[in-house]
C-alpha cells in the first residue's frame, strides 16, 4: 500500500464516520477559543470547560482581560494545571493584543506565536478552527495516532509530524483532519491500551499489523 493510498483510506474512513468532528472546547468567539486553548496545555478539555465560564463572565473580551491583575485572575484558574504561568500568559496575551495588534487577535501563525502562552500548536489550532487555514496542530494524540497508522514515518518531533501530514492531506481537509486524529486518539487509539477491536482503521494500521504478526 502506498502512502497516498494509506492516507486516502484514513480520510475516507473519517469522512464517513466523523463528518462533523470539531473541538470539544466550548467557545463562542475567537477570544474565548484563544483563552481556552492557552488553558488547555497539559490539561483536559473537560476541566478547561469547567473553568472558562467564570473567566468569560468576568472578562468577556480582550480589553477587560488586559486590565485584570494576577490576583484577580488566578483564583479563577487555580484548579487547572500550571495556574501561575497560565494566569501570567493570559494577562500578557491580552496586553500584547491591545498594544501591538490594536485590540484585534491576529489571524496568522507568525503573529499569533508572538503572544505569551501561544506556541505553534495553539496558533495552528486558532487559525485552522476559526479561519480554516490549512495548518495542522500536532498534540500528543495526533503525534501518536499518525505514527501508529503509518501516516508518518520516524517523525521525531511535532513539527516533523505536521510536515509529513501536510504533504498528503488535501488543504481543504486539514482543519477537520486535526480533529479526526485528536478524537480518535482520545477515545479509540488510547496511548496505553488502544481499542483496536473496535477500530475501523485496522486494515491499514501498521501498529495493529505488528501486534497480530
Ligand atoms: S488499529 Fe489500534 S493502533 Fe491502529 S489506529 Fe486503530 S486503535 Fe490505534
UniProtKB/TrEMBL annotation:
Task performed by this protein: DNA repair enzyme that has both DNA N-glycosylase activity and AP-lyase activity. The DNA N-glycosylase activity releases various damaged pyrimidines from DNA by cleaving the N-glycosidic bond, leaving an AP (apurinic/apyrimidinic) site. The AP-lyase activity cleaves the phosphodiester bond 3' to the AP site by a beta-elimination, leaving a 3'-terminal unsaturated sugar and a product with a terminal 5'-phosphate.
Cofactor(s) in the UniProt record: [4Fe-4S] cluster
UniProt GO BP: base-excision repair, AP site formation
Any one GO MF annotation of this record: DNA binding
Pfam families: EndIII_4Fe-2S, HHH, HhH-GPD
Protein name listed in UniProt: Endonuclease III
SUPFAM superfamilies registered for this protein in UniProt: DNA-glycosylase
Keywords, ordered alphabetically: 4Fe-4S, DNA damage, DNA repair, DNA-binding, Endonuclease, Glycosidase, Hydrolase, Iron, Iron-sulfur, Lyase, Metal-binding, Nuclease
Top-rank taxon: Bacteria
CDD domains: ENDO3c
Family indicated by similarity: Belongs to the Nth/MutY family.
Amino acid at each position: 500500500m502506498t502512502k497516498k493510498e494509506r492516507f486516502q483510506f484514513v480520510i475516507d474512513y473519517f469522512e464517513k464516520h466523523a463528518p462533523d468532528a470539531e473541538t470539544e472546547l466550548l467557545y463562542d468567539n475567537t477570544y474565548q477559543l484563544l483563552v481556552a486553548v492557552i488553558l488547555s496545555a497539559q490539561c483536559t478539555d473537560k476541566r478547561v470547560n469547567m473553568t472558562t465560564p467564570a473567566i468569560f463572565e468576568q472578562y468577556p473580551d480582550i480589553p477587560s482581560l488586559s486590565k485584570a491583575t494576577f490576583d484577580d485572575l488566578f483564583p479563577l484558574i487555580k484548579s487547572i494545571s500550571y495556574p501561575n504561568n497560565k494566569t501570567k500568559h493570559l494577562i500578557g496575551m491580552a496586553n500584547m493584543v491591545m498594544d501591538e495588534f490594536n485590540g484585534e487577535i491576529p489571524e496568522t501563525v507568525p503573529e499569533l506565536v508572538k503572544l505569551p502562552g501561544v506556541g505553534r500548536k495553539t496558533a495552528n489550532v486558532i487559525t485552522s478552527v476559526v479561519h480554516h487555514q490549512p495548518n495542522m496542530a500536532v498534540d500528543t494524540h495526533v503525534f501518536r495516532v499518525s505514527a501508529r497508522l503509518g501516516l508518518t514515518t520516524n517523525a521525531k518531533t511535532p513539527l516533523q509530524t505536521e510536515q509529513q501530514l501536510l504533504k498528503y492531506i488535501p488543504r481543504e481537509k486539514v482543519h477537520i483532519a486535526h480533529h479526526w486524529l485528536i478524537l480518535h486518539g482520545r477515545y479509540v487509539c488510547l496511548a496505553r491500551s488502544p481499542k483496536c477491536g473496535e477500530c475501523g482503521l485496522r486494515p491499514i494500521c501498521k501498529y495493529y499489523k505488528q501486534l497480530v504478526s
